[in-house]
Amino acid sequence: MSSQDTTVEEHGKRHKHEGPQKHIVAFIFSILLTVIAFSMVAAGEINGTFIYIMLVFMAILQVIIQMSFWMHMKDRGHIFPIVGILMGVFVVFTIVIMAEYWAWW
């Protein structure tokens, strides 16, 4: 392959190389989410419940961006890591809920 070729060969299959454009957009979006979160907390005049909800929502968006663009989980062949991550999230949430339930009683 020449350096001018825009395809990547993996396991005998060829697919188009994305290039840096999507990574730059994802990086800017991640920085923007971080600045918005910091600004909301620093303002101090916004309702606390709204801030918590927005911070969790922006954290979920941040995780999706990180997993999709930086860890390439959006590509084919990543089903086992995705299932493993989802199972880990399920186990952690179960542990947290059970700990809350145990502490409550």
Describe this structure as you would to a colleague.
It is found in: Cell membrane. The chain crosses the membrane at residues 24-44, 50-70, 82-104. Belongs to the cytochrome c oxidase bacterial subunit 4 family. This protein has 2 domains: 1-74; 77-105. It is 69% helix and 8% strand. The protein contains 3 helices and 2 strands; from the N terminus they run E-E-H-H-H. It has helices at residues 21-43, 48-70, 79-104, and strands at residues 7-10, 13-16. The protein has a two-stranded antiparallel sheet. A hairpin with a 2-residue loop joins strand 1 (7-10) and strand 2. Helix 1 (21-43) runs antiparallel to helix 2. It starts with 6 loop residues before the first strand and ends with a helix.
The structural class is mainly alpha
Q: SSE order in H/E notation?
A: EEHHH
Beta content? 5-15%
- Tally the helices: 3
> How many DSSP-defined strands?
2
Distance between the termini: 65 Å
- Overall, the morphology is flat
Layout of strands and helices, then pairs:
Blueprint (H helix, E strand, L loop, with lengths): L6 E4 L2 E4 L4 H23 L4 H23 L8 H26 L1
Antiparallel strand pairs: 1-2
Note the main attributes of this structure.
two-stranded antiparallel sheet; 2 strands; 69% helix; flat; disordered N terminus; cell membrane; mainly alpha; 2 domains; 105 residues; single chain
